[in-house]
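Follow-up to my earlier ticket, as requested here are the two runs.
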Amino acid sequence: MPTRLPAPVGLAAIAIAAALLAACSGLPTATPSAPVSGREDGSYFSLDDPLHSQEMVIFALGLLDTGYRFGGRNPEAGLDCSGMVSYIVEQISGRRLPHNAAQIAQLTRPIPIPSLQAGDLVFFNTRNQRHSHMGIYLGDGRFVHAPSSRGRIRIELLENPYFKSRIDGARSLLAAN
């Protein structure tokens, strides 16, 4: 006969699971209270080859319809938003980014949102927390991301009312000229 959890324990487990599934990436080690303006030493993570931005877009499009998985780091098991970005960067450059949207934002060069180019990163406040979700900008107002809702990597418009009201930054993986 199967073992049943007491009702309060079962409800608590369901609530915890739902909270985890609603998240996109691991929690940051420290929650920034103000917008992140860059690293103190002025250095940022950057890709070695400017063509890597184009490769990121192509690679991201190849992951469309891949399943979502909280904490996911590879397409076979599923990806979350920061897992998708760090996986793509590692496949293209051989270099690793953290598996955390807020930490990726801290390591990468801020750019104005109107300056977005294909291959740049877009960040959103989806959990009342800066940089709690992210995606890769494709151009023409579109980005690809791994959302927990409907569970598949897909393309969205930045003008989508949900994302338009939550965008909280853009970053480039290219070195400043």
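Run two:
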Amino acid sequence: MNNFIIISAPSGSGKTTICKYLQELDPSIVFSVSCTTRQKRENEIEGNDYYFITNSIFEKKIKENKFVEWEKIHGNFFYGTLKSSLDEAIKNDKTILLELDVKGAMSVKKLYPNKSLSIFIEPPSVEDLKIRLEKRGTDNNERIIKRLERLESELTYKSNFDYHVINDDLDQAVNEIMKIIKKENKGVYYGS
């Protein structure tokens, strides 16, 4: 059984929305809550979307080797997944959904190769991604440019994932991912 379903994608490709839909289809899939040093957005809930912590606390956890993966993104903010969360999932035979950047996904796959299923979500095009980021309204123009610059390097990791799905149509992408999960975790019940 794959305890970890890793969803990774360039920023704005719909990974957060896809993860929320997957959880609606099967509430037994628990969302992994990462730590971050960025400010909480208006619609986010502490402990549900992220653990919002200070730089000093994050850096202390790095020194204590508490993260299975972490990264400083866009030169500003730290994001990381606590080892304790993943070890607890294995111990309790739970399935955790991880929404990670490509490097974080590779770190989890390396540490837990027989427990991880990785899926890369692609936008239909760079132009489509730019429009999504602008519509999202959470980033200024400078940050959108940084996110688009990062796209090229993120796409080079695509072949390291078990599967990749193009998010041209949200419902279709979610259904395709759920079929992959069912196929890979035979005998485990997912949704109706």
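The only thing I checked on run two: The chain has a mean pLDDT of 87. Let me know what else you need.
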